Amino acid sequence: MPPVIDEEICNLCGGCVDDCPGNILAMTDSGPEVQYPEECWYCGNCRVSCPCECILIEFPLFMLV
């Protein structure tokens, strides 16, 4: 599952978009959006760079084994 962004608490700073090494996220008029979910590396850069802590990353089961 790609990163999930809680739009209710996002302050639209764009830090997650800037720090995504795979360019998975893009800034839209409504805020950051996951544009290429299948390309996500689950690196966590977006979550770490978010000052609002509004990004959740749920790891797929195959990565937990």
Main features:
single chain, 65 residues, alpha+beta
Strand content: 15-25%
Widest sheet, order of strands: 1-4
Radius of gyration, CA atoms, in whole angstroms: 11 Å
| Class inferred from helices and paired strands | alpha+beta
Topology, number of strands: 4
Termini distance? 16 Å
* Residue runs with pLDDT of under 50 for 5 or more positions: none
Annotation field: number of helices:
3
The shape, in one word, is globular
Let me know the largest β-sheet. Answer: 2 strands, antiparallel
Order of helices and strands: EHEEHEH
Amount of helix: 10-25%
Mean of pLDDT: 91
Topology (elements, then pairings):
Elements: E1 4-5, H1 15-19, E2 25-28, E3 31-34, H2 45-49, E4 55-56, H3 61-64
Antiparallel strand pairs: 1-4, 2-3
What does this entry look like structurally?
There is one protein chain. The protein has 65 residues and is of the alpha+beta class. Helices cover 22% and strands 18% of the residues. The chain has three helices and four strands, in the order βαββαβα. The chain has helices spanning 15-19, 45-49, 61-64; strands spanning 4-5, 25-28, 31-34, 55-56. The strands form two sheets. It has a two-stranded antiparallel ribbon. Strands 2-3 form a two-stranded antiparallel ribbon. A hairpin with a 2-residue loop joins strand 2 (25-28) and strand 3 (31-34). The longest helix has 5 residues, at 15-19. The radius of gyration is 11 Å and the shape is globular.
